[in-house]
Write a structure and sequence with these properties.
- The protein is of the alpha+beta class.
- The chain folds into two domains: 134 residues, Sandwich (Jelly Rolls); 262 residues, Purple Acid Phosphatase, chain A, domain 2 (4-Layer Sandwich).
- It has six helices and 22 strands.
- Strands 1, 2, 3, 4, 5, 6, 7 and 8 form an eight-stranded antiparallel β-sheet that branches. Strands 9, 10, 11, 19, 20, 21 and 22 form a seven-stranded mixed β-sheet that branches.
- Helix 6 links the parallel strand 14 and strand 15.
- The longest helix is centred in the first third of the chain and has 17 residues.
- The protein is globular, with a radius of gyration of 24 Å.
Length: 447
Amino acid sequence: MRLYASVPPRRTLPLTPSLVLAAVLLLVGGLLLAYPGRAGAAADPLISHGRPATSSSVEDSTFVPGKAFDGDPATRWASAEGSDPQWIRVDLGSTATVSRVRLSWEAAYAKAYRVEISADGVTWSRLATETAGNGGTDDWTGLSGKGRHLRVHGTARGTSYGYSLYEVEVYGTLDGGPPPSGAFTVVAAGDIADRCTASSSSCAHPKTAALAQRINPKFYLTMGDNQYDDALLSDFRAYYDKTWGVFKARTRPVPGNHETYDPAGPLAGYKSYFGALAYPQGRPYYSYDEGNWHFLALDSNSFDDPAQIQWLKDDLARNTKGCVAAYFHHPLYSSGGHGNDPVSKPVWQILYGAGTDLVLNGHDHHYERFAPQDPSGRATPGGIVEIVGGMGGAEPYPIETVQPNSQKRISGTYGVLKLDFTDTTYTWQYVGTDGQVKDTGPTYTCH
């Protein structure tokens, strides 16, 4: 028995004369009542295809949440088996009015679930509720909800397995029109692998790795101190490799100060472990492009090296992309225990002069975002947005001295940055290991 539903989902039933007659009457009635010039909710466009997705769990790396939004009916998301509740959610990219949600269940279906919508990924409103699901396809039409995030929240499994969806299709209209072009998602974190494993409940880097994998971004960034304490190759293999190393081939790292402590030589274990991923241009700093973005991966341990500074200037002079992001370990500004690090100021001056939009850092073990500012710390709309994301797994640091232009600070909550880029804009969320969004940044337009 369905206790509540905005509009019951349509199901495929055997055709009988009475059903045919009823269908004809419904069609005629719909045509008579339809508002002129609007074909109805079913005609709204699909707005969820390829959008960033997260979930409460995955059965394994084959069944990540993005598979439910890839348009391929042969791929699917599957949750961990045997536990309730579980959920899958999608970020639509901007506020949308949702009129229809179509769910294509695999054999592991939900007997009871809710379709929910949220403006911020924290507070959810119900669009529809199912209490007697039987799998197959559920097509919820005639919905009326507004928000940026949509979630299917399973509360009771229909089988002894988990929840599994081939496709989640969300239809509606985005407030800003069609989704912007060149969209892609990146996951970033710094200060990651403590010398512990998942066998310890207090070990955080297995949890941040699982979260990062569920988000399933285009690629991953690390902002240094990838492996503690001295970044030995043996420790990389024993700890980092078991968690964040699962998606090593899609990772674009930079070193931190702990990578310089290796007794075998500064960056020795780091270079041996990552190889060409960390040295694609033969140096521990490099650049690459994605869409309309130019990314600069820098080694802040050697910002006093004239060779790196000259390379940076030359690289920026050659850049043809409209948006620029840089990432390195030591933040110029931070409200944490390490505080401001003036070693980064000369590089900031170069980046600022080239119109750089975004800088990502680690070093201090907390999350913090700053308003756009110049290298001297003056707030300016044309300034650089800095984000500290050092909560990848190392022990948290407290907030000590709040810096000017600091807009949000979170300490003690492990998580990752989920950054959404388009050809002209960027925004982000700080997502905790519990899957909840702890902070959402503004949407900025590239300089």
